[in-house]
Amino acid sequence: MLRFAILFVVYLVVLFTLEILSPVQQHVILPFTAGVAHVSVWLIHLFDASVIANGNQILNAKSGGGIEIVAGCNGVEAVLILVACVLAFPAPWKSRLLGLALGFVAIQSLNTVRIISLFYLHEWNKVWFDWFHHYLWQALIILDALVFFLLYLRYLPPEPDAGDREPPDATPTGVA
């Protein structure tokens, strides 16, 4: 448990330090955030064609109002927390990679629902928007990462017990 805690903190520090570096922001985070806005607008277009994406903004083409997706709202921090958890916990690499891929999808899917709901809450009622944005959705996205990690742990392949391992071959090498 201590090993996990230490590795978790080290991975968190490293990942969050990398995230705030200017080249990473410029070449990874900002394009990713714009992609989140465009995916959200693509989904919104399934039922509302009056919404457009402009970089990291989601705008109502009729009213001009909208929201801007900024750091902390793109789901990256929750993904980094999950990455730190998965990397810190001892597991086969195949399980880790699958967990990271599925976790990324889970967090970004919920974050897309969050962004779309916040866009419409902003259009409808600024007070409700502020409450959902600052309190409810922030906690739910981090909770999503935690719940996913707990599910990941539940479905990891079991480690063989010492009694389940086969004993070393007692036959000397080269003797039939």
Description:
By secondary structure, this protein is mainly alpha-helical. About 65% of the residues lie in helices and about 5% in strands. The protein has one domain. It has helices spanning about 1-20, 20-45, 75-90, 95-125, 125-155, and strands spanning about 50-55, 55-60, 65-70. A hairpin with a 5-residue loop joins strand 2 (about 55-60) and strand 3 (about 65-70). The termini are far apart. The mean pLDDT is about 90.
Keywords:
mainly alpha, 176 residues
Query: What structural class results from the helix and strand content?
Result: mainly alpha
Largest sheet geometry: 3 strands, antiparallel
Strand order of the largest sheet: 1-2-3
The parts where pLDDT drops under 50 for at least 5 residues are: none
Q: Give the total of beta strands.
A: 3
Q: Helix content range of the residues, please?
A: 55-70%
**Compute the gyration radius: what is it?**
22 Å
Intertermini distance: 45 Å
**What number is the mean pLDDT?**
90
Total separate domains:
1
Element-by-element helix/strand order:
HHEEEHHH
Q: Strand percentage, roughly?
A: 5-15%
Number of distinct helices: 5
Cα shape: elongated
